[in-house]
Structures are given as structure tokens and as C-alpha cells.
Amino acid sequence: MKQIDFVAHPQGAHMVGDGFRVHNFIPQVVGMDRYEMDPFILLDYNPKMAVAPGPPRGVGTHPHRGFSTVTFAYHGRVAHRDSKGHQGVINEGDVQWMKAARGVLHEEMYEDEFANKGGDFQMVQLWVNLPAKHKMDAPTYQAITRESMSKYQLEANSGVVEVVSGRYKNCTGPAFSDTDVHLMNVRLHKGGSADFSFPSSHTTALIVLSGSVTVNGTEVPQDNLLKFKREGEDFTITATDEDTIVLVMSGEPIREPIVGYGPFVMNTKQEILQAFADFNNGTFGEM
Ligand code: MN
Fold it and tell me: What percent of the chain has pLDDT over 70?
């Protein structure tokens, strides 16, 4: 059985741009040891909030280099565009996987119609590190709709596991990842359960987006994050509420030096200085 390290509730919120009111779980809550959650660098969580009608808010143009941003929309819609000409809308239930790699500029804003009407808004943004040999790859963009996810129907009408990347039983998610990263939304009915198995060497965690669950018998309330130790393989999630949604993440650590500064995560300080130089000389493109 996989051993639980801790269950953490969200700490103080801060704004990202003027549209995202997030609680940082990685690295703040899990501790500042950047290797503890390898390959996951950052997890910002915007719990469900009511957005009043108004002009689109969000985060204006900013760069990234050295990793992928993976954005999960649970309520509301985010419009995205980047300096490589990619654009799209992340609708409810969808995921966007942007491999920034050698660098993009992008903006993440409320989608126009959502902003005009207002409504519930709930998002997760996860930064997945890239190994050194892929940090300077060309950027790519994967729009993963809920429809395109691989779906595993659980027994006894327990619910469904929607696989974004990696595998759950015989289902493989559509997202391409350069390393072994498993991301999935687990949607359970009250009393329903699902069993999981990931190697003990993986970094494995989950966050409860809706309802509350038990994990190997330990209660995890809504908006809480559970982190496992790197001990044991198996765990079972059981829903104690109706309409439960849990984001499960498990990844093989990259085990390389991590040097991050703001929107850049590289292997050495020199590479961070180079990222600033490249950003300032226009290498990331224009928007
Ligand atoms: Mn960004």
C-alpha cells in the first residue's frame, strides 16, 4: 500500500494577474525542497469562485522556458494565445498542455463570453519539468478536450477515470509527455471507489476538486492536497460525497538539478541568465 506523507489544506491565496485567485500547493505547501515533488515544479489551485460579469481578466503576456504548463479547467473558460501562433479556449473539463521548452510568450485570459456572463470559475495549473535534453526543444501545444480523453468506466457504476496522460489500466491518455507522467481526473459517485497503482519511485499526489474522499482510509476534504511518500504502490480512492472529482498525478522524477527563477526553470544559474538575455533580446517572439 502506498504510504501517505500528508494531507494539506490550501494556504493564503494570491492573485496571478487580475483573474486567477490561487492557492499555491507546490512548492509552498509541500516545502521548498524542489526535489520533493520532482517532476512537478508548481501547482497553483484556483478553488471554485464566482466571477461577476465584466471585461475579461487574467494574465497578460509573459514568458516561460524549460518546462510544460498543464492547465485544467473545472469551471469557467480560459482563452489562450501564444507567440508561436497557437490559440484556443480551455472549456470546462478540458486540459491544455503547453510545452514551453525553449520559450514562448503567452496570455491566459477569461474567454470573452464567460467574462461577459460571469459564473463559476475553478482551475488548476501544474508545471511539469522537462529533462535537460528537452528543455530547448521547439514549443508545442496540445489542446486536450474532455471528449478526447481516454475513459475507463469503473465497476459497479462507481464513476469514470478520464486519462489525460499516461495510463490507467487499459486506457492511455492522449497527451504526449517527454517523461513518464500520469495525469487523470477521477469522477466518482457517492460510495464509488477506484484503485490505483504507481511505482514507489514516482512522485504521486492528488487534489480533491469537488466533494470529499477517503484515500486508503484517510479522509481528504474538498480543496485539499494529499501527497504520498515514495513507499508502496497501491491506493484506493472512495467517494464520501456525490459528484466527487479528484485530480491524480504521478510522475517519475527527472533527477537533474533544478534552478528556477520566476517563469524559467533550468538546470544551471547560467541557463537562467541566458533565459533572461534571450527574453530581453526578443528570442521568445512577439505578441
Ligand atoms: Mn503562463
Answer: 100
